[in-house]
Amino acid sequence: MNTNTPSKCDVVVIGGGPAGSIASGILAKKGYNVVVLEKEKFPRNTVGESLIPTFWKFTDLIDASEDIENEGFLQKTGGVVSWGGKVKTVSFKSFGIDRKALHVERDRFDEILLNKVRKLGANVLEEMKVTSIDTSNPQEAIVKYTHTKNQEPSQIKATYVIDASGQQAIFSKQRRTRVFDKDFGFQAVWGYFDKSYFYDKNLKVRSFEERYENGGMTAVSEIGNWGWSWKIMLREKVSVGIILSNKHQPRFKTGGTTLEERFDLFSKGIPLVGNMLSESTLIPGSVKSIRDYAYQSTKLVLDNCFLAGDAAAFVDPISSEGVPVSMYGGYLAAWAISNSLKKPHRKEFYKNTFAQEYNKRLKIFKILAYPSKQIPDHLFKLGQKIIHSFSEQELLLILAQSNMTGRFETLNKLLGSHSVSRDVKEVGLVEPIFL
Ligand SMILES: Cc1cc2nc3c(=O)[nH]c(=O)nc-3n(C[C@H](O)[C@H](O)[C@H](O)COP(=O)(O)OP(=O)(O)OC[C@H]3O[C@@H](n4cnc5c(N)ncnc54)[C@H](O)[C@@H]3O)c2cc1C
After folding, report:
1. d(CA 87, CA 101)
2. Tens digit of pLDDT for each residue in 268-280?
3. Helices (H) and strands (E) in the chain, counts
4. Is CATH 3.40.50.11750 the classification given to domain 186-291?
5. Which of 262, 284, 380, 426 has the greatest CB tally within 10 Å of its CB?
6. Which overall architecture, per CATH, does domain 8-74+103-181+294-359 show?
């Protein structure tokens, strides 16, 4: 047993990604005794580099926005999209959105957040892998973990636990509450190229060297009926990913013998994205793949453990909602826990409100991931009830995002007679662009 680590605290947060950092930052700022247990040593790599401006309202809460501004991440000015046989462009400015969208290296972005959490007073312990969470005692949970270097076991007691362990989803796996989403049984494959051409906000094609002065549009391209591809300009490399629906997985397997070869060949053949990779080289060893990444836990809070971020649910990265929705989960968990610590007799109310509100957001996240005409009826009806609780600003952001991928009908159908006024026409269609 390691004697240098704390044996007790108010809240243990498992995972130092966006969900964990927002939750622990808010709680530490309020003066609670928070311990973050993170398996990796930061900076650690992860996918999810296109950030829509919703994230700022959460980074504001933990005073991290200035550090993010100062880092000099490339700005995402909007999107250029090949979808349904047409090429369209969307600029965030047309939707009255004035805070920046970014293309971030997630190792650095997440590190900035976690460093801020430390400064706010949380005890961040890296290279500590949580192995189990015992919530059988309603007064005190026990979290067991091991040091990843020397395998030394430890444990810590806490009044509350937040599982923000991402796709590892440690608690929902342990309690068998994770249900995979059959409609999104896709495979994602992504990797990094050394450079690429890109579109600036005026749709001029630029070379990689011009990226700092001209920001970048996220390039998105449809693959078949439901699959799609992204190209995201980063500061020193270019992120390319493909989401393969079940139908397109056999097509992916026909070229090349290794995953890298297949990915290289397939990416370069994708409309819009492939054209911009004509002089790019795939960075060896950079290709990764994930299957069955769409799921939700049937319980978002169980006993004294709250689930936030990918540990609670994930659908599909199509709407670039992953990071903001995860941060929202962290924010809501921190809200529920700080209130429960102040008023323990009301804790069931805060738990229920957390689960109810979070579930609403997750349902909209899921609805927006479906192609407009394929949303299951029950989900659509639920969405109609929920959507009115969203702010005008958030609706505009959702509209801007869903505009890119032919999903724009969804939002206005959900809103019915209250549909948001800025419709597709205003963003202006650009008829096919040839490089
Ligand atoms: C292919 C793909 C593309 C995506 N693209 C985008 C995008 O463009 N934009 C966007 O906003 N989102 C995107 N996402 C989603 C986004 O990456 C996630 O939603 C987001 O990272 C979730 O944040 P989190 O804090 O919940 O989890 P994570 O960021 O995964 O952090 C979880 C942390 O928990 C730690 N951990 C795991 N297990 C343990 C353990 N047992 N003990 C201790 N620590 C542990 C991990 O090391 C990690 O640091 C994408 C997702 C996929 C799959």
Report:
1. 21
2. 999 889 989 999 9
3. 14, 22
4. no
5. 262
6. 3-Layer(bba) Sandwich (3.50)
